[in-house]
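Session log. Operator J.P. requested a structure for one protein chain; no other inputs attached. Running the standard single-chain path with token output.
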Amino acid sequence: QVQLVESGGGLVQAGGSLRLSCAASGRTFSTYDMAWFRQDPMKEREFVAGISWSGGRTFYADSVKGRFTISRDNAQKTVYLQMNSLKPEDTAVYFCTTGIGGSHDYWGQGTQVTVSS
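Structure written below.
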């Protein structure tokens, strides 16, 4: 069993930065690929970024490529999402989850990111 808790969201002006964290519990964290998704109330949940279990491979949605960076620290059981050059359209609730494609066995509760213009 893995429990995920996101933090680091908040209100920021366009062009600003935020760093999200996803702290995991459970001894199997380091075996999971991990991903960040986001959801705006008016849209479906969408993939943002993913990272392999070792951290050796990363994947990004086209909309965030070059602005967001995903990383992980398996010793700290934490996944990060560094978000730079934020835009109002990045406003959403951000969730971390186990897995990149296919099934997502565990989800966090989400953290709100609001970007003002």
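Operator note: Residues 33 and 53 are 4 Å apart (CA to CA).
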